[in-house]
Amino acid sequence: MHRFIILRINDFGVENLTRRAVRLRVLDLSDSSLITDKSVTSVLRNCLHLEHIAFSRCYAIAPITYASLKQLRHLNSLDIFGVVDQRGLEKLNSLLGSSISLNQQRFSYVARPTYGVRRTAIWGLRTRP
């Protein structure tokens, strides 16, 4: 397995996932509001081949924790949209160095529904007759 995307996961789930899928190259944990710094530690310990990781809108992770991802030798991109402001991005960019690009993939692998006015449509398609 080289790419994994999951929603609604907690730190225990990330620990189990990373121990079993050590060859992951892409991991998208965006919008996982239940994960904390412990999940970043699990990733660091178990997923040494990661090239891209996304923690966009993972608000329970302290922004400075992302600097530790520099330890992943193969990591070349990190998406953390909605987590830090521009000043924070600049600081994190200086801590990570030039080998890791921040917020380069504007579109997530995770589909997020958009609702119509009466919540009878999703992505512009009617859901109720």
UniProtKB/TrEMBL annotation:
<dbReference type="InterPro" id="IPR032675">
    <property type="entry name" value="LRR_dom_sf"/>
</dbReference>
<protein>
    <submittedName>
        <fullName>Uncharacterized protein</fullName>
    </submittedName>
</protein>
